[in-house]
Design brief:
This protein has 127 residues and is of the alpha/beta class. It has helices at residues 8-20, 31-40, 59-69, 84-92, 104-116, and strands at residues 2-4, 26-28, 48-51, 75-79, 97-100. Strands 2-1-3-4-5 form a five-stranded parallel β-sheet, sandwiched between helices. Strand 3, helix 3 (59-69) and strand 4 form a beta-alpha-beta unit. Helix 2 packs parallel to helix 3 (59-69). The two termini are 20 Å apart.
């Protein structure tokens, strides 16, 4: 799971949460960094969770760019302010879910299981 957010504290909290849930996590501080990593190793990422409001390229712009690189790659956006326009634009960009940032830590594990499937974070048998 790749998490993209310009807020260092948020990256640390989400990274720790997802690792406790059994996911391998890669955090990026910008959309450009995330795009470079996906371009370098497209199959290494199973899902991207991105903040909507970031300096430079927004989470929606990142979602659109990722859809051109890997159309089937699930993208989720989190935002502190969700309105109908954001939801419509996210849907048009192929975003799977829009999550409220204030409830992200509580809602994220279930959202990932719904998008990736329940076995996605479980360790391989025998390992």
């Amino acid at each position: 799971v790749m998490f993209v957010d310009d807020d260092e504290l948020m990256r640390l909290m989400v990274e720790r949460l997802l690792e406790r849930e059994g996911y391998e996590v890669r955090c990026c501080s910008s959309a450009d960094e995330a795009l470079a990593l996906v371009r370098a190793a497209p199959a290494a990422v199973d899902l991207v969770l991105t903040d909507f409001n970031m300096p430079g390229r927004s989470g929606l712009e990142l979602a659109r760019d990722l859809a051109r690189l890997r159309p089937a790659l699930p993208v989720l956006i989190c935002s502190g302010y969700i309105d109908d326009d954001l939801c419509l634009q996210a849907d048009q960009a192929g975003v799977r879910r829009v999550l409220a940032k204030e409830h992200l830590l509580e809602a994220l594990p279930m959202a990932l299981r719904k998008v990736l499937g329940p076995a996605a974070a479980e360790p391989a048998a025998g390992g």
